[in-house]
Amino acid sequence: MSAADPPVFSSADGPPPSPRSFDPDTASGIVIRAAHLSKHYGTVQAVKDVSFTVRRGDVYGFLGPNGSGKSTTIAMLLGLITPTSGQIDLFGFGDLRRAEALTLVGAIIESPTFYPYMSGQGNLRVLARLRSGVTSQRIREVLELVGLSDAGSKHYGNYSLGMKQRLAIGATLLHDPELLVLDEPTNGLDPAGMLEVRHLIQRLAANGKTIFISSHLLSEVEQVCNRVAILRKGEIMAEGSIAELSQRGQALIVRVADASHAIDVLNGVDGVTKVQRDGDHLVVTAPSARTPDINVALVQAGIPVFELRPAGNSLEQVFLEVTGSPDEQSADALLTR
To answer: H helices within the chain, ranges in order?
Structure first.
């Protein structure tokens, strides 16, 4: 233990806290229900008619470019700001029991801070004093859960960025919440730190936690979430499971001799929903199962096919489709800040 750490009082090693006097709504399995949420700041509409449902056990990704309304929505979920309109229900408790519902939530908003001269364990002791019933044993359990057992006695100031973020997540776990809300948990981390946090989220999900994650990083959301909502300019543009959205975004790269003729032919193929020219090739939106049909149609039309392959990350196709190009995303972020 660091000399600067607060002592551990014997009372903290007493019996575990008594069971909660209330239980979340287990009948419906719904942890978060947001209905028609909107938030205005003067003439700026940060969030517009947002509705979604998060069920028990979900790792739900709230994905969108910077400035798309993710943090504003989270602040409304946590009661930090009041919606201009709309409703939020946590665990089926309703408005009258909102304070009780929030005791079942652990959250990280933006960049949490700790005392740099104290150890990781010492920082958790300080936070434990703010909550009744958090024992020394629970602190040790949390350090083990976030992979910091061996580093618990080290000064926080000497932690890597990944270790600091894992300690922050550990702080939200002290009271063993049912729901974790993580706002951009890998923001600013190097690849190693991102991997550490990703593995931690996967462990927590395997242990039955419901997790709500906001991020502008498609790859991170895709690797840890089972359901995703994609936002742009404060609106949900697409929502569903990873599999559903990936199927929607299936596309093929087609390189042919006569692009104009090929576009006419492909628009008549069953299952093809969109054909667009991109440089020297065509991007054809269609289920991968239609690949043979597309090839046959082009050959029968007398169009030589030089290349026919999957476009790559299908969820990425959906993300770019509904949020716009990277340049458009940057412009949107400036307009909505």
So the answer is: 70-77, 98-102, 120-128, 136-145, 161-172, 191-206, 218-224, 242-248, 259-266, 291-300, 314-323, 326-336
Low-confidence ranges of the chain (pLDDT < 50): 1, 3, 7-22, 26, 328, 330-337
User: What class does CATH assign to 10-15+28-235?
Assistant: alpha beta
Give residue 69's region: left, alpha or beta (phi > 0; psi -120 to 50): left
Residues 230 and 68: their CA atoms lie apart, in Å, by: 9
Fold designation for 251-310: Alpha-Beta Plaits (3.30.70)
pTM: 0.76
> CA 152 to CA 184: how far, in whole Å?
24
**Each residue of 245-261: pLDDT tens digit?**
876 667 788 999 889 99
Compute the mean pLDDT over every residue in the chain, rounded to the nearest whole number.
85
DSSP 8-class letter at 65: -
List of residues 6+ apart from 89 with CB closer than 8 A: 30, 32, 33, 34, 35, 95
Pseudo-torsion of CA 31, 245, 242, 46, nearest 10°? -50
Domain spans, the chain: 10-15+28-235, 251-310
Give the DSSP H/E element, type plus range, for residue 238.
strand 235-241
* Spatial distance between the Cα atoms of 218 and 323, rounded to a whole number of angstroms: 12
Q: Is the dihedral of CA 115, 120, 125, 131 positive or negative?
A: positive
